[in-house]
Amino acid sequence: MVETVNSSETGSRAADPIAPEPSADHLNLMALVQQLEDQQKMIGALQVKLHHMEEKAANLDNRVFQMRALLQSGKGFSQILELHSLLEAFMEVCRERYSAINSSVLLLDDLDPESVYYRVRAYCGLPDTFTDKQSVEEEMFMFKIPHNQGLLWQLIHQGDVFAVRDMRKLPRFESAFNRWNLSVLQSDVWVPLLRGSDVLGVLTLGECEDGSQIPETDYAFLEEIAAVAATVIDSTLKYEKNGRILNNLRTLYDVNQQLANVNDFRKLMIETLASAVEALKAQKANLMLYNHQTERLEIKAVWGNIPPETLKAINEGILDTKSFAVGEGVSGMAAKIRHPIRINDRAKIEQVSRNTVHCILAAPIMWGTDVEGVITLTNKVKKDENGNTIIDPLSRFGEDDEQLLVSLADNAASNLNKARLYDASITDRLTKLSNSRHFEVRFGNMVTDAIAEESSLCLGILDIDHFKKFNDKYGHKAGDFVLEKTAALLRQAVRENRQDECFRYGGEEFCIVLPHTPIEEATELLIDLRKKISATTYTWNSTELSASVSIGLACSTDFSHPVSLFEAADKALYVSKDAGRNCVSHAKTSDDIVTLDLPED
Q1: What is the mean pLDDT of residues 164-179?
Q2: 352: helix, coil or strand?
């Protein structure tokens, strides 16, 4: 019997067969595929990271380049001492880096004391002239803009670089552009030049050669190089200012014979007082100068009805006088309020002496806004029936008198300023003694006068012994300290009534000129000075220091020419050194030099 098979059952078995197990090769192939996919993902991630590192390295390289450029620019700028050349170099660096078509530098302008302006001091790529708001053609160097409180200057004070034109190349500060004609500068970016909180000026840069604008990503570099340049510009401005002052001092020294020495100025002040007394019919007058160290007013000259001995002693600086604080008395008050004071009621005047003061007039000596001194007059005078000058108790100082005294005080201020400028040019800054330049002029004149008057003038040349040891062992500050102290002792030794003068001639070398002094008296004075210097000790940073000097001495009665007299004293100085130092030697002739004061053990 044939068995019949159910077709539906057969079909069901065929549709759901049992799946065979994957072979080992198949599994290995699948794992390899997965591994390749993972590696591709890792490679992709590494490529992204590599690209990021390359960008970072490029930025770092650019930063290093910028720092090197800043360093080199700073070095280059610092070697330029002329302002215009410095500004040209600064602009060139900035233009070259960004291919800017033009640039300019505006700096603070002190030509107009009433207003603060910034004027073009250097430019490139701009026309040499411009047309101002009044349609007048001017040189580009005359272009200036005022400082104000507007938005533009607020941004400048922040010190950040900023664009003055937008992406459409239209002015961001339209009002300022129109008011100050800023389109003349053809600028695109402004770079403030700040020194601390002070705005020295502004660097302006035009657009790039391809018409693009300097990207904001480069503003940081501009800020940094501007900071470097501002420091050097500030130093150069001060250097040039000092140069102008020095040049003025030299000019004064060469052409102003009136200020050849302080005595000339003193005579000028006396003549001013004499003129005031005569013109205003005053009993007496005095001139006070303001001492910036003590901050007090000191009487330097007097004139009028004063005992001759007292008048001479004060005017020659022999007699010390009372000083006054600013605000003390009528003279001090005139200095304090910077305005003349006129009091004609003696009841309102403090009577400080047995002589009654009926009226007083004081006018400050002003130089700019600074008080340099005061001229004061007291009492009016008249002639009696016998022609003698007496006090007029009924007369007083009027408004015309006040105006005249103010004019005289103005003249005195101008002369005082000139004299102080001259004094600064002939004075050694460290020791406050007259310098070698002044010595060469004064010594020649003093020797000539001594020969003409047939009087004895002695010259002493002093040299600090082993001075180098102070610098080597304790430093140059200690050496300067010893120089100052030695100069102070030298200054104390001079006799003002004999018109002695002392100078710093060289590094550690000093000169003292003793007019109207016999050789015996000069010898005694110099030996006493040598002993005093040797016996004096100084404290420097808790260290006791002492110095000695070798001295050479010569007299005009033996050497009648300034050169031969100096050479003889100088030769005697070296004899003192050869004799063991710390002594005085006298040159009788160029070959006969005697050591008068042998060194002590």
Answers
A1: 87
A2: coil
Looking at residue 560, its amino acid is S
* Crossing angle between the packed helical segments 476-493 and 519-535, to the nearest 10 degrees: 140
DSSP-derived secondary structure for 17-68:
PPPPPPPHHHHHHHHHHHHHHHHHHHHHHHHHHHHHHHHHHHHHHHHHHHHH
- Give the start-end residues of each E strand in 100-197: 103-109, 117-124, 129-131, 137-139, 144-146, 162-163, 189-195
Residue 193 to residue 185: CA distance in whole angstroms = 17
CB-CB neighbours of 182 under 10 Å: 20
For residue 15, give both structure tokens. 């549709």
Euclidean distance between CA atoms 286 and 539, whole angstroms: 41
Q: Which tokens hold the place of 573?
A: 């100085």
d(CA 533, CA 485): 9
What is the CATH code of the structural domain delimited by 436-595? 3.30.70.270
CATH H-level superfamily of 262-425? GAF domain (3.30.450.40)
The answer to whether 460 and 523 are in contact (CB under 8 A) is: no
For residue 569, the model assigns a pLDDT of 93
Here the tokens at position 159 are 């010190």
**How far is the C-alpha of 121 from the C-alpha of 106, rounded, in Å?**
6
Domain limits of the chain? 83-242, 262-425, 436-595
Write out the two tokens for 132. Answer: 């101002």
What proportion of the chain, given as a percentage, has pLDDT over 90?
28
Range scoring the smallest mean pLDDT among 245-254, 340-349, 422-431, 480-489: 245-254
Going by CATH, does the domain composed of 83-242 fall within 3.30.450.40? yes
457, 514 Cβ separation under 8 angstroms: yes
